[in-house]
Amino acid sequence: QVQLVESGGGSVQAGGSLRLSCAASGYTISAVYSPYSTAWFRQAPGKEREGVAAINRYGTTTYADYLKGRFTISKDNAKNILYLQMNSLKPEDTAMYYCAAAPNVDGSRRLVKEQYNNWGQGTQVTVSS
Asked: Is there a smaller number of Cβ atoms within 10 Å at the N or the C end of the chain?
């Protein structure tokens, strides 16, 4: 059974940084025999859940265009943890951030929420101006 537990959210001022973590169990993030992709999504109040960044078992990354290089997704293979380093945070980055995982995600659809069937409980990020 796949389980995802996020942590690291909090409140920061604009321009600050946060690093989110997602501890995964029930599958191995890096194993070449494991077909899973893992991703970060976010959802602001009253808005649709949107993809932020994704990484597959080979380390191939995908980012949302709107990020413009501010966020970096990475993984610690030994600990089976996914990270999202967020720099130059803006008030519009305020949202609940979710970790998601699924097998056999289409490479062109890694930031599409319907591709994922395993979700964490989320961690809140609040950026003040």
From this structure: N
> In sequence order, what are the beta bridge partners of 61?
55
Predicted pLDDT at 32 = 62
CA distances (Å), origin 47, targets 37, 42, 50, 95: 24, 10, 9, 10
Question: How many other CB atoms are found less than 10 A from the CB of residue 12?
Answer: 17
Compute the Cα dihedral for 43, 39, 60, 77 and give only its sign.
positive
pLDDT bracket for residue 125 (50, 70, 90): very high
Query: Which pLDDT band holds residue 111 (cuts at 50, 70, 90)?
Result: very high
The pair of structure tokens assigned to 69 is 């290089």
Tokens of 17: 């940084």
